[in-house]
Amino acid sequence: MDTPNVRDDEVVIDNHGVVLGNDDDDVVLEPTPGNDDDGVLEPTSGRLFKTEKEFIYYYKQYGRHTGFSIMTQISKREDDESVRYVTLGCTRGGKAMKHITNISKPRLTTKIDCKARINVVLVDSVIFIATIQLDINDKADICMTKSFNALVVDAGGFEKLPVIEKDARNYIDKARHLRLGKGGADALRGYFERMQYKNDEFYSSMDLDDDDRLKNVFWADARSRAAYEYFGDIVTFDTIYLTNRYGMSFAPFVGVNHHGQSILLGAGLISSENTEIFIWLFDTCLKCMDGRVQKLSSLIKSGS
């Protein structure tokens, strides 16, 4: 049986993940831990389900085991609210919007055009799978809490794990440092020394761990420090910019000049994004600005 065509009065999700229509069926269905340790069978065309609820539960569990979350992309219901047909897809389906309305606050997107989707229809009071597309291309993007929770589920409970989440976090934080490769830290230090030799207004600071490995670094040249004195009334700080294979977060401090142009006031490379490292970075930036603290301290206190 062919998948029904979409009519004008139906709910459709566009390629930016925005739902068009008045139906409130567009719900992100996060995978939830379950007790089905034997796994979930891959969906096949023609498989039957007694109810919509049974189908959604099944596909949620399949998404959990496969590694993606699901959401309603297309749905159509009868007058009595019974389902006529439903299409479920990956929450990361669709393409990211390229148009940026506020360049000073760019936003990350989770959209990677994942093609995974499944369509079911109702025939003679029975729901069956009509079409399937299982091209899942989600990239790993897992926070520490989700990773640890997954370990708990796999182990069968917190009491069966040899460590607690705090211990795992401490181990990871200790292992993190700037991955510059052999001789990279010395080369960076040498570069900073040469720059300071050319201009004593060049400022740099390197944060080392207990094993003298480079964790974080901050620098600002003479022009940036001078610009801060005139254009430091409004300063933005962001860490969304990731750099190449080293996996370091680039953390620029940016101001706006009298022409409305963005200007760099200082920058850092940080090995992680936690309170301790942010405190180091902000304190170092304050020291760099030679007592011109009030302008930047208001930025820090505001939580930027």
TrEMBL record:
<dbReference type="Pfam" id="PF03101">
    <property type="entry name" value="FAR1"/>
</dbReference>
<dbReference type="Pfam" id="PF10551">
    <property type="entry name" value="MULE"/>
</dbReference>
<dbReference type="InterPro" id="IPR018289">
    <property type="entry name" value="MULE_transposase_dom"/>
</dbReference>
<dbReference type="InterPro" id="IPR004330">
    <property type="entry name" value="FAR1_DNA_bnd_dom"/>
</dbReference>
<feature type="domain" description="FAR1">
    <location>
        <begin position="58"/>
        <end position="121"/>
    </location>
</feature>
<protein>
    <recommendedName>
        <fullName>Protein FAR1-RELATED SEQUENCE</fullName>
    </recommendedName>
</protein>
<feature type="domain" description="MULE transposase">
    <location>
        <begin position="234"/>
        <end position="294"/>
    </location>
</feature>
